[in-house]
Amino acid sequence: FYDYAYSNITVDGAFTNNTFDGSLGIIDPNIRLEFLGKMDFSGEVPVYNFTADVARARPYYLNLPQEDPNYFASFLIETDLSGRTLDELNGEIRLVNSLFEKTDAQLQLYDMRILTKNTPDTSLLQIRSELFNADVSGKYRMTELPASFKNMADQFVDVLPGQESPPDSMNRFDYRLDIGRVDPLLDFFFPVLGIGDRSLIYGRYDPLNNELTTTGYLPSLRIAKSTWSNVDLFSGIDRDLFIARFQSDSVRFGKELSLVDQQFYLQAGRDTASLRITWNNRQDPLYSGRLNLVGTFEKDTAADRGFLLHVLPASIYADNEEWNIHRSRLRLKKSFLQMDSLIIESDDEYFLADGAISPAMDDAFNLEIVNLDLERLARISGMKADFDGDITGSVHYGKLDQYPYVISDLSVDTLRFNRQMLGPTTLKAEWNESAGTVAMDLLSMDRESRSLEVTGNYTPEGGLLDLQIQLDEFELRSLDPYVTGLFSDLGGTGDVRLTLDGSIKEPELNGSVQFREGTARMPMLGTHYSFSDRLRIYHNNVYLEDFRLSDEMGNSARINGSVTNDYFRDLYVNLRIEAGNVLCLNTTAADNETYYGRVYATGNVQVSGPTDQILIRVDATTGRNTAVFLPLYTASEVQRTDFITFVGDEEPEQQPVAGPKRKSGGVAMEMDIRITPDATVQLILDPMVGDIIETSGRGALRLEVGPEEGFRIFGDVELQSGEYLFTLQNVINKRFQIEPGGRINFNGSPDNATIDLDAIYTTRAAPYNLYPGGQSAMREQLKKRIPVECHLNLQGELSSPRITTGIEMPTADPETRNLLINSTSTEEERMKQFLSLLVINNFYSVSGMGVANVGTMNSSIAGVTASELLSNQLSNWLSQI
């Protein structure tokens, strides 16, 4: 079948000349099918009762009419039908659990049912699915409907010349289409069309009684690149006239041009059709218009009929400027368009089109332009470029030996392209009959200096190109709109020397670009680079050979590689960068709340992939002045809490802590970074109160950033030095020095880390408040301040580590140390003393005989044990990490 040999076919059933009852199985590399059921043609009415389970089918490899090699289908179809023809079918077809895939789309249908009932007097068609429902009821014959529609149209316009068809008495029906969400179906099978959710269309067709009505509402309608919003449509017959009205709140053509309160009104009858198109935004600047077109069929044979379209005088407003359309006539045929002096003018601007475009050799088309605003033309046409200037001149289109050619004489008073001044510009194209070529010459002059020049020849036969292109001091900022996402803030200039050979279908660029004081920013990295080097273009591909760029500190990197393409399609990047202590990250929290900082690195960077799926691989070692910030919170998780928190019986709802996933617009990064003591890393636990761990050490980290996965980090760092800014809301704010030997291990999300950290806060305090009372020779000695160390250990999951505190007096005598041991023998007492040292730099009095400031401490925590206080506050703090 279609020259494809199916394999592994099994058949188990009963055959006769007119029946099959049984099963059929195919297990082929490109199709897997199980058929079970009956097909019976023995009676007067054929019967189809079967189930077909297609587990997989690849039509392209089965030599079926399908051009996409990735097309895939899987579905279950249940059929219970009978009938000799399409007009006599009765029964139901059910499509279950269907999956259709192709290169750029996927469609899933879980349950679609089609019910058809036909008798000599009535017909019914019902479609039920999760996407839409449709009903057609009355009397109809499917096979006769195309001819019926033609006959109906012929009553109003002369569709069938010389034919008089009797009214159709066989078809009369009502129809209704309820659309839930049909775009997945349209995107797959008819991508040029889109219909908004919850649309409704209904009507009646009864040609015998001259009735044809349609009413509908569509929240949105898309045809190709044009989109209408809030569409109301109606059609009907009023006496001998067919009328149709289509109106919408707005219609957008492409990305730039839109019309507000737009309406089409069509009226057809007596072999003439008239169309009125209006729009009006009713505000400043004014965009409004009213076009009137009248059309008739020419009295030719049906196979070669022409359609005459008369354009009536009209005025339109664009950006408050009035444009007048003069009376004109257009003639349309198959492969033929003729314009009879179509003029559109406004003040000193006008546009004249005259002539014909057709396969005929003697037809020609002429365009005359005076002072047309290029900026407006570019905006209306949706071009991705900012042009400025007024264009004047003429264009002639013709054919030579079946090959089209264009002759032009155009000039622009002052041409600007994406903010760059190119200056007065002329474009001349002249026909060289002896050579069979069009000689082309485009020249832009800026202050008596050549800014752009294109010279050479175009050969219509074969569409051959032979052009030389020169741009002097081309401003790189003009390319900003085309490199969005990868680069921004381009600066500097380039001198371009290119040749354009090959053909229109397969053009080929060769040459070079010499940059002068070029600059560029990479938004994803926040870095600025400068360059003054040369790149080579060969067979449309861009090559960089020891291309040197420098960061803002003057550190340099070398780039080798290419950007290849298939005739300017399917661009592929393959670059290798060798960096020497180059700034490769320079971002703030405003750029990226997941990770930011300033990173200098030495190593290699590989940039590869198609432009919409760039992968950046980094293998580097950190350098001096590197500082990385990893916020272990999100903005919604940072909140203030009271110093003393009262906790009820209900446990608070636990909010998961997760690093936000950021989409990077198709750019992914994989960075293997060797951390050296030259770099510092800050773990920001709570920016509102200041909990920050700032450390340096040695280790290896792998950072991954992907469009889907967001930011992930793996590896561990051995801590060698640093400090921990420990805060307890607005009461305690102390800097603990990190002890060497600690470790932080990352395993995915930044907050999915484990920590083992020892930190010490050193103060001076008098041990007197540890004295239990009574007479002793030590009393006066104990009033002297001595060094005291507050030890804090965090261990375990960074989101909820185990916290251990300790107090040491490294220079105290044994007896004084015993006082400390006795005063901190329980966890509660140790926590009280720990907090006291942090809050007032003194011990909490165990006898009530301490100095006045200790009494203040006592009153401030009266009724709350130290362990409760530290537990509540630290747990609250750590829950935000």
Topology:
Elements: E1 9-15, E2 19-28, E3 31-40, E4 47-57, E5 72-82, E6 90-102, E7 105-118, E8 123-128, E9 132-139, H1 145-154, E10 172-179, H2 183-189, E11 193-195, E12 199-206, E13 211-223, E14 226-238, E15 241-253, E16 257-269, E17 272-280, E18 288-297, E19 307-311, E20 314-318, E21 321-325, E22 328-333, E23 336-346, E24 349-357, E25 365-373, H3 374-381, E26 387-388, E27 390-400, E28 403-417, E29 420-432, E30 437-446, E31 449-459, E32 464-475, E33 488-502, E34 507-522, E35 527-531, E36 534-538, E37 541-550, E38 556-566, E39 569-587, E40 596-610, E41 615-622, E42 627-631, E43 668-675, E44 680-686, E45 691-706, E46 710-728, E47 732-738, E48 743-748, E49 753-765, H4 779-782, E50 786-797, E51 802-808, H5 814-823, H6 827-840, H7 852-860, H8 866-879
Parallel strand pairs: 41-43, 42-44
Antiparallel strand pairs: 1-2, 2-3, 3-4, 4-5, 5-6, 6-7, 7-8, 8-9, 9-10, 10-12, 11-13, 12-13, 13-14, 14-15, 15-16, 16-17, 17-18, 18-19, 18-20, 19-22, 20-21, 21-23, 22-23, 23-24, 24-25, 25-27, 26-28, 27-28, 28-29, 29-30, 30-31, 31-32, 32-33, 33-34, 34-35, 34-36, 35-37, 36-37, 37-38, 38-39, ...
Give a structural overview.
The protein is 9% helix and 58% strand. By secondary structure, it is mainly beta. Among the domains are: 364-461, no CATH class; 588-879, no CATH class. The protein has a 51-stranded mixed sheet that branches. A hairpin with a 2-residue loop joins β30 and β31 (449-459). α6 (827-840) crosses α8. It is extended and about 135 Å long. The two termini are 66 Å apart.
